[in-house]
Write a structure and sequence with these properties.
Blueprint lengths: L8 H22 L1 H28 L9 H14 L9
Helix pairs in contact: 1-2
């Protein structure tokens, strides 16, 4: 049996978080100013995610089998070690 990674109180905290969040978002949507803040927040998240994806893609390194074979094989073997399906090979 795998070790338990969460505490029993975390379920209670999750429920409280969801309830408080629902009330908060309903109050934001009801007020016109809150709706504007909500839309600006979603727009900011969208832009920040795009910047992050651009940063990751701009700074990544593509490895081939002939460059560093031990480094190339390691990510492909991890899903098998974890009992998951293997990654698809990118072209």
């Amino acid at each position: 049996m795998p070790p338990k990674l969460t505490d029993d109180k975390e379920t209670l905290y999750l429920i409280l978080l969801i309830l408080v969040s629902i009330v908060f978002y309903v109050l934001l949507i009801v007020s016109l100013v809150g709706l504007a803040y909500l839309l600006l927040g979603f727009l900011a998240l969208f832009v920040i995610q795009g910047v992050f994806v651009g940063y990751v893609r701009g700074n990544c390194v593509r490895l081939g089998e002939d460059q560093f074979p031990e480094v190339y094989r390691r990510p492909g073997s991890l899903p098998l070690k974890w009992g998951s399906r293997p990654c698809r090979k990118s072209t």
